[in-house]
Specification:
The chain has 258 residues and is α/β, with parallel strands linked by helices. 34% of the residues lie in helices and 23% in strands. It has helices at 47-55, 77-82, 100-111, 125-138, 154-166, 184-197, 210-216, 234-239, 241-247, and strands spanning 9-18, 21-31, 36-40, 62-67, 70-71, 85-88, 172-176, 202-206, 219-224, 227-232. It is globular and about 55 Å long. The structure holds adenosine-5'-triphosphate (ATP). This is ABC transporter ATP-binding protein.
């Protein structure tokens, strides 16, 4: 979705080397406000490495990252979160012994006191617990409020992670394989949840499930050997010879639905 406006996120000729390997090799792409943008590519293409640089977990060797036109290349992770960038981590920021509500209340507390926008203004413990319940409902966990996170199914834990990332009301939510390890029904539920987030945040996701990617994404960027070889609407990506070549022997791209 290119509106001609300043991109929400601009990745400009980013380079990240591990020894002799360029895991990110002058990668450039733009994520526009309001879109669901999927980053795909064969195994080892450099998707995770790129996501780490966007979140601030890894520093690029050269190139720039701009959020709303401002250079964030050297900003630490927490400063990026303050500017509206959130990344959903797999399990690592879920407290397995705490309830769903307490996990979300802690995430809300973590953003309180900063200049971030809240799910709703949270001043008291009661308000914080209510706000946590609201976020739980947002990600489909309203019936699981009092369950400990460790007792949730894998898919429910992934929903909770999305909720934790939503606590800071991000402008850009970065998701690393949100459907990993899910069965078909669970995947469909997560796809529906991600669809429903469109109105409130821009999504950048790395995902191997091509059916889901082609169902969800407005824009797909294809990374091969650290380079973005194509970026565009799903139909253009599906028809691109470069992309077909890159996927030979790997995951097949789904056929267009009539
Ligand atoms: N910390 C590291 N040190 C050395 N090499 C690394 C490191 N992290 C990643 N790599 C290498 O960089 C390349 C890109 O890896 P990356 O994990 O980013 O790819 P990916 O597209 O996310 O792969 P997958 O789809 O299999 O998860 C790979 O060749 C990988 O072995």
């Amino acid at each position: 979705m290119n509106t001609g406006a300043t991109p929400l996120l601009q990745i400009d000729t980013l380079v990240k080397r591990f020894g002799a390997l360029s895991a990110t090799d002058h990668a450039s792409l733009q994520v526009h406000k309001g879109e669901v943008h999927a980053l795909i590519g064969p195994n080892g293409a450099g998707k995770t490495t790129l996501i780490h640089q966007i979140s601030g977990a890894l520093q690029p060797d050269s190139g720039r990252l701009l959020l709303n036109g401002a250079d964030i290349t050297r900003l630490p992770m927490h400063a990026r979160v303050k500017r509206g960038l959130a990344r959903s981590y797999q399990i690592t920021n879920v407290f397995l012994r705490l309830s769903v509500q307490d996990n979300l209340a802690l995430a809300l507390q973590a953003v309180a006191g900063s200049s971030m926008r809240f799910w709703r203004p949270v001043h008291t413990e009661t308000q914080r617990m209510q706000a946590a319940a609201d976020v739980a409902a947002r990600v489909g966990l309203q019936a699981q409020l009092q369950r400990t996170a460790g007792a949730l199914s894998h898919a429910e834990q992934r929903q909770l992670e999305v909720g934790l990332a939503l606590a800071s009301r991000p402008q850009l939510l970065v998701l690393d394989e949100p459907l990993a390890g899910m069965g078909p029904d669970e995947s469909q539920r997560m796809v529906a949840l991600l669809q429903s987030l469109r109105a409130e945040t821009t999504l950048l996701l790395v995902e191997h499930d091509m059916d889901a990617v082609f169902q969800l994404a407005d824009t797909i960027s294809v990374l091969v050997a650290g380079r973005v070889i194509a970026s565009g609407q799903p139909d253009a990506i599906r028809q691109s010879d470069d992309v077909k070549r890159a996927y030979l022997g790997d995951e097949a791209l789904p056929e267009a639905h009539p």
